[in-house]
Amino acid sequence: MNRQLTSDARRALADAGFSRRAFLKGSGALIVTFASASIADRFSGVLAQGFNGTGSTRLDSWIAIGSDGIVTAYTGKCDFGQGLYTAQMQLVAEELCVPFTRVRLIQCDTSMTPDQGTTSGQQSHPTNFNTTNLALAAATARETLLKLAAARFGSSASGLVAKDGVISAGSNKATYAELVGGKKFEVSLDSNAKRRHPREWTVLGTAVPRVDMRDMVTGRFEFVQNVKVPSMLHGTVVRPPAVGATVMSVDEASVRELPGVVKVVVKQNFVGVVAQKPWQAMQAASRLKVNWSAGAALSPQRDAYQQIRTQPSADTLLVDSGDVDAMLTRSAAVIKATYQHPYQMHGSMASSCAVADVQGDKATLWSATQSAYPTRNTTATLLGVKPENVRVIYTRGAGCYGINGADTVTYDAAVLSQAVGKPVRVQLSRKDEMAWENYGNLFAIDQRVGLDKDGTIAVWDYEAWSAAKGGRPGYNTPGNVVTGTLLGLNPAAFNARTPAPAPTNPLNNGSNTAPSYIAGRVRDSQNGAGVVRSERVLSHRVRSPFFTGPLRAPERLQNTFAHESFMDEIAAHVKADPVAYRLKHLSHKRLSEAVRQAAKAANWEARPSPRPGQRVTGVVSGRGISCVCYEGDNGYVAMVADVDVDQDSGQVRVTRLVVAQDCGPISNPDGMRNQIEGGAIQGMSRCLGEEVTWDSEKVTSIDWRTYHVLPLGFAIPKIEIVLINQTDEEACGSGETSITVVAAAIGNAIFDATGARIRTVPFTLERVKAALASRSSTA
Hints:
Elements: H1 7-15, H2 20-27, H3 37-47, E1 63-65, E2 71-75, H4 84-96, E3 103-107, H5 124-129, H6 133-153, E4 161-163, E5 166-169, E6 172-175, H7 176-180, H8 213-217, E7 233-237, E8 247-251, E9 261-267, E10 270-275, H9 278-287, E11 289-292, H10 304-307, E12 313-320, H11 324-330, E13 333-341, E14 353-359, E15 362-367, H12 372-383, E16 390-394, H13 406-420, E17 424-427, H14 430-436, E18 443-451, E19 457-468, H15 482-486, E20 534-543, H16 556-573, H17 578-584, H18 589-601, E21 619-629, E22 636-646, E23 652-662, H19 669-688, E24 718-724, H20 742-754, H21 765-778
Parallel strand pairs: 2-3, 7-17, 15-16, 19-20, 23-24
Antiparallel strand pairs: 1-2, 4-5, 5-6, 7-10, 8-11, 9-10, 12-20, 13-18, 14-15, 14-17, 18-19, 21-22, 22-23
């Protein structure tokens, strides 16, 4: 089945002489052989980051040119709403020197696209736009076509010009279709293929409209919820009523007489119902009598931040200069603060859905997973079939940025389909998704700094406790999500380790555990780092009672909230302007420039916080700033927030956000603005209201009344964006950068307006009023 291909793409594939099966067999999409050590080394470096698969070094795995000149590109990085589909088409058009309208893209179909692992962690741009994978493939294709034209013309390739799919030299001209249309390239990726410099761009760097937008706004776009397969049945899962509950018995007779019921499926602790229609499956699931054991008693939510400090932990010492305690003793002043961040959920507007067709030892899955090949492997494990017999077709679902229920519902559909031998569609209920998804981690973070007599930070000490269980299933751990665990597979092992071993990788700051102001934690050394040289960063990971996993800016957001709020507290202590104080402790050129640009665009009023002379009742205004080197070298952002605070009600209203962002050369300015705006608004929701709640047995935030996202009709702030275009740098990510700094910027603005510091997210009315009362009692 070629459901994922447009008619143009299907025609291009056929014109190129490929059936899907022939393409797969000949392209090397699944069998990887590296043509040279240099390419192998580059791919190995990408694999080490944990986001990307084995890819392929064969050009035909990435690019095909039809006899009509249409270019079909194949990518393992999917667009789940961030505009990546259009940007990748721009990339191919740019490097191949063809019009954008002549490019077709096939994304994340394991029967024909390369294995690029997971679309996650802001890695799609660095992966495909820098030296490897799609960009390198398109550049290799262009240079191969130049060589073919040179051979035809009997000339040197150096004098040829490629433009609009035509290669010319004087009166000699040849189209791409004439040179290779309908045939394979039969070459390996060339690590020396010359890339087009951003200063030469004509397609990249322009605001090409998103190719999917028209169909989305007119209702023609096919989301995974819309997929229909002949003879398709419908399934509903029955999740445990409490965390840790197991199946004791199931009374199938309780639903046997209900209309439309096809089968009750029980495998270990996994329970589901398959019926002819969705409503029939839902009714049967609600009436099915399942006897569950008692669950594990959950500790009170009010004690979570204290209890996390007392559990066995896996400790990591990220950096240790060895002199922190001595330097703190000698400091002129020591400042301490603790910051807390709750479990939060993805809370996608539409609940997760998947369709599976398992026939014998073969399976086809339509899934919104961001990990097509890993999902292929883990589903094969659950079904007991070979991975090569499982086809995963990425089909977009609700917005996610992490791991909502897309992977687990894919497993649900596959298991139910295998049980009945027919295609099965499963869409999770709102409650089942919200109660059992992989939440963003809960954090408690202690910070200490020592200041010298001039108020400069001399030493920074960080210690954090975070809770985790599971995560992305990857290629071999389906137990990392609820369905896999219910089927008897364990989550990734938790191994306590105390004390932490000595630091081993001084340049790894992938979770922004270390603040941007210390000297030894930035991979991007050519742009500088922080200036604080006495430093210790110690993390304690404990076992979570709930599943956890990536949620947009995972852990980077929690850590940056603590770092940037604390930096603001320190500046206030020494009565320094927050912008000037940050710049004083930064030698990083690109982050410093982002701070300057954001402050300039916001007309920053240089003075210490809080604002002097503010009244203690009624509505008051303030401004705050926050910044970060995302992951050390994967994006640089600064945000200024303006807020109004009603001191009588505790209501916080964000009136303006100014964001300056540097992600290297900008592939599509409109797309980047969309990412920044979306991140800013989602960040507002997470810092002002979102928090997972639970009782002694189960999660209780299971709908839009109990999980508090920004409500419809909320006052949208004015969002102003400064794009810093670095044409001589490599591409960085943009999907998670702006959201990382929102909570601190808003918290700092609240302090500037009121003198009240809030150190626990979310900034609810109750917490704001408590902070205001504490301010009043200690004034």
